[in-house]
Specification:
The protein is mainly beta. It has 2 helices and 9 strands; from the N terminus they run αββββββββαβ. Strand 6 and strand 7 form a beta hairpin.
Length: 155
């Protein structure tokens, strides 16, 4: 009887293998460990698919000093004609076209935020960009008032 059982296990073709995921959890997320395919006495391991590579076409604008503006200007018209919303992720820049998207990164913390240029400024000589209060909050700039940031033009 043992010979027949062993022969049947060897005769199972690899195409008839069924996946068995010993690491599956009930959350619906993909398992982190490789999925094992059991084909009888032979076990094949398939590594998880690599994460997709996202190309970043950002153009560096260098570094500069950022500050923020908020409640005093909330609701006033910006240079682009829209009303300033201190809760939106927007910024003022002297020369970038309105609607440009800029990634602002605080090198001290590594935190970044993407803002849309909708106003002109800053009018302080040593500042490069003025962020809305919400954008400054995202990168931790509110308590300091201003700080050095890296700028990247996204579009």
């Amino acid at each position: 009887m043992k010979l027949f059982f062993l022969a049947a296990a060897i005769a199972v073709p690899a195409s008839a293998a069924t996946p068995v995921d010993h690491n599956a959890d009930r959350s619906g997320e993909a398992p982190a460990a490789p999925i094992r395919f059991e084909t009888g006495p032979v076990v094949q391991e398939v590594p998880p698919a690599p994460a997709p590579v996202i190309e970043d076409d950002a153009q560096s604008l260098g570094s500069g000093v950022a500050s923020f503006y908020g409640a005093k200007f909330h609701g006033r018209r910006t240079a682009s004609g829209e009303r300033f919303d201190m809760h939106a992720l927007t910024a003022a820049h002297r020369s970038l076209p309105f609607g440009s998207e800029v990634r602002v990164t605080d090198p001290r913390s590594g935190r970044s935020v993407t803002v849309r240029i909708n106003d002109r400024g800053p009018f302080s000589r040593h500042r490069t960009i003025d962020l809305s209060r919400a954008a400054a909050q995202e990168i931790g700039l509110v308590n300091r008032g201003h700080g050095t940031v890296e700028l990247e033009l996204l579009s």
